[in-house]
Amino acid sequence: MARLFCCRRATASRGAGRHGPERLTMEVDMPLSEIEVTRGIVEGFTRDFLESLELDVAVVGGGPSGMTAAHFLAREGFKVAVFERDLHVGGGMWGGGMLFPRIIIQEEAADLVRAFGVRLEPFREGYLVGNSVETVSKCTAAAIDAGVRVWVGVSVEDVMIREDDRVAGVVINWRAVELARLHVDPLAMAAGVVIDATGHDCEVVRTVARKIPGARLLTDSGAVVGEKPMWAEVAEGEIVDNTREVYPGLLVAGMAANAVIGSPRMGAVFGGMFLSGRKAASLAAEILRR
Length: 290
Ligand code: 48F
Description:
Bound molecules: ligand 48F
Oligomer: single chain
């Protein structure tokens, strides 16, 4: 235990503190090898990476919809990983509305969010206010506890396809490689279902639409429509319905669902994101069980 307080040369001369003099003056042998640090990191990473090569579900984007979808799938026992290009998950939640770190959750989603341990404060009838930092942190902790593996700093730049152009996995590279525009070939992970939870840009769906000749999405228009300007009530009213399989093996969740179908954006209102994530999880589970 004392190892935590001192290292070999740091014998305390601070005198008796709250913890008593003995502990502070104890000399501790704490061998520390940079090589073992490196080995621990590379071995742990490699084990997890290899275990992720064949997933049930690959979730692209670690915002509220992606983390929620991943959480519910992991709870059902599916092997699920989230790929997030930032160094942190949470997507657009951290900054709340215009950097005021608060988000609005509607009554309909309150139980779901509270089940992650998040405290919500009732505001007006039907509206609850959450602290965005608390919401991200607790949702993330709950997802990881449920068994979700999260890869940060990793961008999904393409998908794998198989017979009939069915989406069969994700093609990944380091975000740093992407930013530096280095010509480095990516790697790939197979997945029974891919969920595009990339937010406003609906990047995975756009990639499929761009790269598969004649690809028709399973939507009314058959193509990516793009999000409409803000209209929170309509946006939140349509988001769960918009959450669906848009191409064989590819689902959309969250703001990506609204962007693909052509519904409005909603600003710092997040209830629909969580409900959309939960619906994406149940659709993915249905596809996998089929
Ligand atoms: O944008 P984001 O939070 O998506 P969401 O779950 O939630 C939307 C809300 O945050 C907000 C809103 C609510 O009113 O409209 O915008 O739909 O999270 C999307 C995440 O996906 C990551 C991106 O960094 C962000 O954290 N992302 C986007 N493209 C890729 C990606 C990619 N190609 N590979 C990996 N991560």
